[in-house]
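Everyone, study these two lines:
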Amino acid sequence: MKIAFQTLGCKLNYAETSTYERGFQDSGVEVVDYRDNPDVILVNTCSVTQHSDNKCRNIIRKCHRVAPGARIVVAGCYASLRREEILAIEGVQKVFGATEKGLVVPETLSLMGIEDIPLSKEQYKADPFMAFSSGERTRSFLKVQDGCDNMCAYCTVPLARGRSRSPLIEEVIPQALQIARMGIREVVLTGVNTGDFGRKNGESFLDLLKRLNDIDGIQRYRISSIEPNLLSDDIIDWIASGTKFQPHFHIPLQSGDDEILRKVGRRYDTELFSSRIDRVRQKMGDDVFFGIDVIVGLPGEDEESFQRTYSFLEKRIRPAFIHIFPYSKRPGTRAYLMKDQIQDRIKTERVEKLEELCSILNKEFILSNKGRKALVLWESTNKDGMMSGYTGNYIRVEAPYAEEKVGTIEEVTI
């Protein structure tokens, strides 16, 4: 029996798909390309924007055209929000929502006529579904949290992935140990609201970081994203004290205008946000990589509001990178019904302005690190005789390909 995978969306989805893949391989199912006549195609979907929904539908239909004999199984956020719509697409046999991730492997195996499942079904029922990626030789994305309680006005995540929940630390550690045994040197902690880890279990995110830091074999950690109000002084100070956690922070801002932040239900203002950036730079230096999420065109974002965001990024924060998203109306959210919606043409113009600013700031950050010594983890891709890797503060560097260096950390001069 053969299975193929198509994954869209965030690193959380990729971690979950990788875990599904290992489950099927443990049952003797061969993983192939979707064009190689698979028996089943599993599509793991995203629904963060209307464009994401459209892309998911197109991918599902393309899979059926290319492999009309394959049974199509759909999971992920789009599956959670649009089950009936997906079931109506030709070729789709099964749809699994947010609370059914643990059923994906056993029920799909059953669909394939395979009843001999190496793990008991009870082990598949943990919520949140435990997952980590293993497709790269040097880096793994480890899921430590799922869902969100924030209910921001523009966001479908609580609807698609459910309320915030996380496993116990004692359930995460075996996953990290397994990653270490695979020889993977870097782990990226991922979740929907990663910093909310442990809140409902009487544990804390900092407790988890400290336990993970002690695991032999894993040499570097990154935090995929953390809300500014959850990036506490204690976390910053501990990371800065000399740990395996890298000087690289991905923090969602969404808007640099306090009225917009309040309107959409964010749990901080620009003063708190900038205080977190200042604290990190004070403790860890000016060479920390900050990746900042921004949504342009939120309801009510007039030209003055946008300029406040632009100025906040340009003059106050000066991040190394800006992840820019045009606001997309999502049915079922409060923002969908808000007045003062922004025209798509204006959103596009604002995206272009922030992309230009991002380019300037990114070049400035890289130049500020030129001549500095840094540790690089070399990756396995051989492209035109060159290999690449990332410094601790997430600067991509290249060198002539050397197989013996793959998966090792080397000091270089940027």
Remarks:
- The mean pLDDT is 95.
- The CA atoms of residues 338 and 388 lie 46 Å apart.
- Residues 2-124 form a domain with the Rossmann fold fold (CATH 3.40.50.2300).
